[in-house]
């Protein structure tokens, strides 16, 4: 870990913290999700850099040591992809291999829609591609299916989720989220919230107290508003992405998901992913991998499997 370099790169009006290791022309850009940091990719940074890749993992806008603009309107997919294009320009990289997880996967899909010229190939994880519905946003669709207690809906009111999270020691809160193995989409009444999820009896073998302490130290400093702003900008992202209605992801793609991932429990999603439906929207989708017995945070829970799948896909591209 001490070989990982940390730098700050100005991009798109913000300063972005970047962790990187490795050299050479074959660069991989890793995009983390919620509630994560560059650190979620620590295993892949080390293992893939040893295989000859230049590995780059930023803290995304609003996270960790990257700037955190206050308005939620500054967290649309256009903003985040703009940050990443500026990052690549600042590093002198024209085209990258792209890897995403959770919100990072959503941003990776949109990166490939907006700027396919900058992406050699994509390995995306956990969150399948969701084509833009012409009449309703993702948030509206989720609210219609799961109601106001669905976690994305709970995150909309500024201050509500922050207060919920603040009622629990940050390390315990993150441990609850990162180690959850309940595949049902989270619906949490306001009087229960995330604070009402039972504490773990012990951390699993793949997540140490040192890992939790690192994540917690950053969120204790920044709070969660920046991270929550991605959810609060869902409707605005839908509005500004009107020109991409019907657009397809046209880069070579591999998709990996855990068998216990909550996304597979969303209506019709398992058939869309595993049954071949996603191929219509991602025509260069070459493979879908379901990791048996693995939950949402697959890059942490099963790091070597994920590394192997990434390398197997990128090595001949």
Automatic annotation (TrEMBL):
Keywords, comma-separated and alphabetical: Hydrolase
InterPro entries associated with the record: AB_hydrolase_1, AB_hydrolase_fold, Epox_hydrolase-like
Reaction(s) catalysed (UniProt annotation): an epoxide + H2O = an ethanediol; (24S)-24,25-epoxycucurbitadienol + H2O = (24R)-24,25-dihydroxycucurbitadienol
Pathway terms, separated by semicolons: Secondary metabolite biosynthesis; terpenoid biosynthesis
UniProt cross-references to Gene3D superfamilies, sorted A to Z: alpha/beta hydrolase (3.40.50.1820)
Enzyme category, top tier: hydrolase
Listed GO MF terms: epoxide hydrolase activity
AB hydrolase-1 domain boundaries: 27-141
Entry EC number(s): 3.3.2.10
Its job: Epoxide hydrolase involved in the biosynthesis of cucurbitacin and mogroside tetracyclic triterpene natural products (e.g. siamenoside I and mogrosides IV, V and VI). Cucurbitacins have cytotoxic properties and exhibit deterrent taste as a defense barrier against herbivores. Mogrosides are nonsugar highly oxygenated compounds used as high-intensity zero-calorie sweeteners; they also possess pharmacological properties such as regulating immunity, lowering blood sugar and lipid levels, protecting the liver, and acting as antioxidants and antitumor agents.
Protein family according to the UniProt entry: Belongs to the AB hydrolase superfamily. Epoxide hydrolase family.
Subunit structure: Homodimer.
Stated name of the protein: soluble epoxide hydrolase
């Amino acid at each position: 870990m001490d070989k990982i370099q940390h730098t700050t790169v100005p991009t798109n009006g913000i300063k972005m913290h970047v962790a990187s290791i490795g050299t050479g022309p074959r660069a991989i850009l890793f995009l983390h999700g919620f509630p994560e940091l560059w650190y979620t990719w620590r295993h892949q940074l080390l293992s893939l850099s040893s295989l000859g890749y230049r590995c780059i993992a930023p803290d995304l806008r609003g996270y960790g040591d990257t700037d955190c603009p206050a308005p939620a309107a500054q967290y649309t997919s256009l903003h985040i992809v703009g940050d990443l294009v500026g990052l690549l320009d600042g590093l002198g990289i024209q085209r990258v291999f792209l890897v995403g997880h959770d919100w990072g996967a959503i941003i990776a899909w949109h990166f490939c829609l907006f700027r396919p010229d900058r992406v050699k190939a994509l390995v995306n994880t956990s969150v399948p591609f969701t084509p833009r519905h012409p009449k309703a946003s993702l948030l509206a669709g989720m609210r219609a299916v799961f109601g106001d207690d669905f976690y994305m809906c709970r995150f909309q009111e500024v201050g509500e989720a922050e207060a919920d999270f603040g009622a629990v020691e940050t390390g315990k809160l993150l441990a609850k989220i990162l180690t959850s193995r309940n595949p049902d989409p989270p619906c949490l009444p306001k009087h229960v919230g995330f604070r009402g999820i039972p504490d773990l009896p012990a951390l699993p073998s793949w997540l140490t107290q040192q890992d939790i302490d690192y994540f917690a130290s950053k969120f204790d400093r920044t709070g969660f508003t920046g991270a929550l702003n991605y959810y609060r900008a869902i409707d605005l992202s839908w509005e500004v992405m009107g020109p991409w209605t019907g657009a397809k992801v046209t880069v070579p793609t591999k998709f990996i998901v855990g068998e216990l991932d909550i996304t597979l429990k969303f209506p019709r999603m398992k058939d869309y992913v595993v049954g071949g439906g996603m191929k219509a929207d991602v025509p260069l989708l070459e493979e879908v991998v379901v990791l048996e017995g693995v939950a949402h945070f697959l890059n942490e829970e099963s790091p070597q499997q994920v590394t192997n799948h990434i390398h197997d896909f990128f090595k001949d591209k």
